[in-house]
Amino acid sequence: MWDWSFALEILPEIVSALKITISATFAGFAVALVLGLILTLLRRSDKVIISKAAQGFIEFIRNTPILVQLYFIFYVFPEFGLSLSPFAAGVVGLGLHYSTYLSEVYRSGIDAVPQGQWEVGTALNFSKTQIWTKIIIPQAVPPVVPVLGNYLLTMFKETPLLSAITLVEILQTAKIIGSRSFRYLEAFSIVGLLFLLLSYPSSLLIQRLDKKLNRR
Amino acid sequence: MSTIELLFALLKGLRVTLTVAFFAIALAFVLSFVVGFGRLSKIKFIRAISTIYVEVIRGTSLLVQLFWIYFALPIIGIRMTAMMAGIIALGLNGGAYGSEIVRSSIISVPVGQTEASIALNFTPRQRMWRIILPQAFVMMLPGFGNLQIEILKGTALVSLITLGDLTYRANVINASTMETTKIFTILLLIYFLIAWPMTRGIEWIEKKLTVGRY
After folding, report:
1. ipTM attached to this prediction
2. What is the three-class DSSP state of B214?
3. Which residues of B are less than 8 Å from A74 in CB distance?
4. Shortest CA distance to A87 belongs to which of A165, A175, A173, A34?
5. Best interface-test mutation with A: which of B6, B56, B67, B148 has the largest number of A CBs within 10 A?
6. Domain tally for chain B?
7. What is the pLDDT of residues A164-195, one digit of tens each?
8. Which residues, numbered 68 to 107 in chain B, qualify as contacts with chain A under a Cβ-Cβ cut-off of 8 Å?
9. Contact in structure between B135 and B156 (CB atoms under 8 Å)
10. Which domain holds residue B78?
11. Does the CB of B41 have a partner CB in chain A at under 8 Å?
12. Which of these, A150, B37, B163, B189, has the minimum number of CB atoms within 10 Å of its CB?
């Protein structure tokens, strides 16, 4: 059943594939942070068409599977002349999907700033830029930092999906080992353990950060 | 193939997608309550087991859990069909997230409600059924609405363990016709058309149940 020496033998190979998993996570998160901000701003646009279009886009992305979105980016984009490597397609797919979630997070952060704060800014003759940078953003950001952290973790756990578009991250590595040796138990269990070992302590860290940032 | 033909070829996978989604949502719903109450139990052992389940599931990835159940479990003698593996993986995963919805809703019912029902001499069972749960359940609805959608979207993953759902069909048809753009656009639209009424349905129930409150 469980073979310790085999598990130890394949461990280095799986661990070395973590590099791909982790870099895809952070690159995807960076894309999501920027796209999410753009979506939030579009949604707040005074032009109804723009804000409705942004909202429709968000609803559509959130209500369809990320796996199918990844296929779409990887297989359909080349038909229009945009061929992406598995890594790039994965980063774009992850980033796009989670940008719609992050735009909600940004929105909730901005909405949580009391209306009076905007009025005070106007009363003190602040310019629009000053109101945003000196009053709204400093109050909107701290409450949402832990939420953003949780989404980073969620994205980390979604990266195995990139194996479906042929990216050799840790799950794909485990699968290759499995089909080579006909031993799936050790390979997949190690992948699961690695995820747990990395994400559980991170989630505790985020909880502590939350307590520290949002003491009231 | 014409668009209509593609659509019908794809829809052959609809039944599998809906079956997996239905049973996985049902399993997740039951587990959410069992484990959600388990985490609030007075017995330490039950609390510990529930917490470990939730943390292990939430700390690993759905696709890894699915592969583990389908490819690794047979090695230790537990065999099941792809359909079963898909339902169990999605249900277990959804249950872990759902239990947090149940737990947090129950503890956010104001403590005065508990005190009032004790003062009125309600039994613990009456207290839970008549006072706490009706109030907590309304709070759970938006969370469960999201969870349903997450599970529905998750069903696409079963295509990776050879189950013939919508996404699997799309890949097969794509390999033979190469009508990539059409196929994947239709596929996205089908998922959206299933998810959209589910979202609206939950909102409707929420509105019905909150009529006259506050």
Report:
1. 0.91
2. coil
3. none
4. A165
5. B67
6. 1
7. 999 999 999 999 999 999 889 999 999 999 99
8. 68, 71-72, 75-76
9. no
10. 3-210
11. no
12. B189
